[in-house]
Amino acid sequence: MSDKSRAAAAPQRGLLSADPVGDFDGAAPRVSFEFFPPKTPEMEARLWEVIKRLESLAPRFVSVTYGAGGSTRERTHATVRRIRNETALEPAAHLTCVAASCEEIDRVARDYWEAGIRHIVALRGDPPGGLGSDYAPHPGGYAYAADLVAGLKRVADFEISVAAYPETHPAARSSDHDLDNLKAKLDAGASRAITQFFFDVDLYLRFRDRAHDAGIRVPIVPGILPVTNFAQLKRMSAGCGASIPGWMAAHFDGLDDDPDTRRLVAASLAAEQCRRLHANGVHEFHFYTLNRADLIVAICHLLGVRAPRAAAATA
Asked: Which residue of 8, 117, 279, 286 shows the fewest CB atoms closer than 10 Å?
C-alpha cells in the first residue's frame, strides 16, 4: 500500500470522537506486556501489584527483560518462574548471547523448559557498556541472535520471539543487512518479531511492506512505548536509534511539573498510534510497560481490551 493510500485509509477523527472505541469495533486486538526485573524488595512489591492488575486483561504473554551484559540474569529467571507459578499468565523469558557460553545458555533453557516456560524472547543482547559499545561474541557462546534461536530449538521446541527494527539496528551495516538478519532469525526457528519502539506509524508500515517483499510472513508485532517523561525518552532514543517526531515535543511542552497531564497525553498518543496501526491491519500490540499499570490499563481500555468484570458491566 502506498503512503498516499495509507493516508486515505487512516482514520481522520481524534480520540474524542463520539465512539470512544473507534476503529476497534468488533474483536479487540491481542496484547502482550513487557516488564523488567526489580532491583529491590520495594520495587518487587510494586511490580507484583502491576502484574496482578494487568493479569486481568488476559494478555497473550508477558515478557521479562535482561539487563545490558546479562546483568539481571538471576532476577529475570526468578521473576519468570514466579509468574509461571503464581499467576495464570504465560511468561516469556528474555535470553541473550552476551556473557555466557552455549553450554550455560542451554542449561538455562533446559531449566526453563522443565519449569514449564515455553516461550523465549531471543536477542543478541547489548554489551555491558550499552548499545554505544562495541559488541564482541562471548568465547564459546552464541555469536548472534540467529545462532541463539537455532540453539534454543535444539534444546526444546520453544516458541521464540525475536527483535525487529523499523528504523534499522544501530549496529547494522545497512537497512537491507538488518532485514537479512531478521530473516535469518526467523529461518532459524523464530515465529514472531517484536519491534523496537517507534512513534511514526508510517515508519512501521514501510518496514512491514519491505519485510513482506523479502518473503517474511510471520507477525511483526509493533512495540508500543507510552511516554510520560520526555527527557528520559530522548536518552532512550539516543541509545537505540529510535527517532522522535518533531510534533511530540510540543505535546509535552510545559508539563515538566504536571505528571497527571503528562499521563493523559501519553495515553492519548499511544492509543491514537494503535488506532492508526489497527486501521492498517495490525491486530496485536506489545507494550513496554516500564513496570507501570495505570497507563497500560487506560490505553487497553480505549482499545477495547478490558478485564472480564469491566466488560460485563459495560454490556
From this structure: 8
pLDDT in tens, 184-230: 999 999 999 999 999 999 999 999 999 999 999 999 999 999 998 88
Q: Is 34 a catalytic residue?
A: yes
Residue (of 130, 126, 204) closest to 165 by Cα position: 204
User: pTM of the full predicted structure?
Assistant: 0.89
Q: How far from 258 is each of 81, 229, 234, 264, CA to CA, in Å?
A: 38, 11, 18, 10
Residues whose CB is less than 8 angstroms from the CB of residue 278 and which lie 6 or more positions away in sequence, other chains included: 23, 24, 29, 303
Q: How far apart are CA 305 and CA 145, in angstroms?
A: 32
Rounded to an integer, what distance in angstroms lies between the CA atom of residue 130 and that of residue 125? 9
List of residues 6+ apart from 50 with CB closer than 8 A: 35, 289, 291, 292, 293
pLDDT in tens, 9-62: 443 333 333 344 445 556 789 999 999 999 999 999 999 999 999 999 999 999
Domains of the chain: 3-309 (3.20.20.220)
Residue among 34, 114, 159, 284 flagged as catalytic: 34
